[in-house]
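Following up on my earlier thread - several people asked me to post the actual chain instead of describing it. Fair enough. Here it is, all 199 residues.
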Amino acid sequence: MSLPGDAVARGLIDDGIGITCRWWGRNNPLPSNEIASKLTAGNLNLHVNHFESIDPTTGRPFYEETPFISLSCGTVERDTAAKTNFVHTARHTALWFGTRFGREPVAYLYFCWVILAPRSAVAVEGVAEEVRDLNTYRRYSPYQTEGEVAAKIHLPANQINRCEKWEWDRGSKTIRRAWTYLNSVFVPPEALSNVREML
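Reply from S.P.:
Thanks for posting it. Predicted structure:
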C-alpha cells in the first residue's frame, strides 16, 4: 500500500531538488543574500545542542529556522573504565530519530554522500561539518554519540543514492524495511576521486 508520505519521500529524489534545510522550507525562494549570516558557529551550536530552543530574533524554535541538515554517519563511544568501544551505526541512529524515538510507525532513510571539511569551516556552504569529530569540535556535547554530520542549506538530489522506507511495530518492538527506491540519476562520490591507477 502506498501512502502520501511515500510520494513525498520519493519526490525528494524525483523532483531533482534533493533535501533542503528547514530555513529554506520556510522561506521559498531562499533569501540567498542571508546565507552568510546564517552559517555561523553559534547557529551550528544551536542546531547540534539546542535544536528546540527559542530563537530570540524570530520567537520560533531554532529548528524551524536552521540552515543545517542533520545526517547520521555513525560513531564510536569509548568506555575507558571497561576498556571497550561501542559502535553506534548510522542506520540505527537514523531509525531512532526517523521514528521519533519509537513514537512514529514509519521512517524514511536517505543514503547519500557529502564532502566533509577537513577542519571547522562553518561559513563554507559547499562542505559539511563532522560535528562528531572530537579533534575538530572539542566542546562537550551530550549528543556526541549520535554521530552527526551537519550539511548546509541543500543536499542535491544526485548525491542521494536511494530512499528506504522502514516500518516500526511497537507491539513486537521490531522494525523492517518495507521498500527501497533507487535514484536513477545518482552520481557516486568516486566521480570526485583524484586517485590514479599506476603500474
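The mean pLDDT is 87. That should answer part of your original question.
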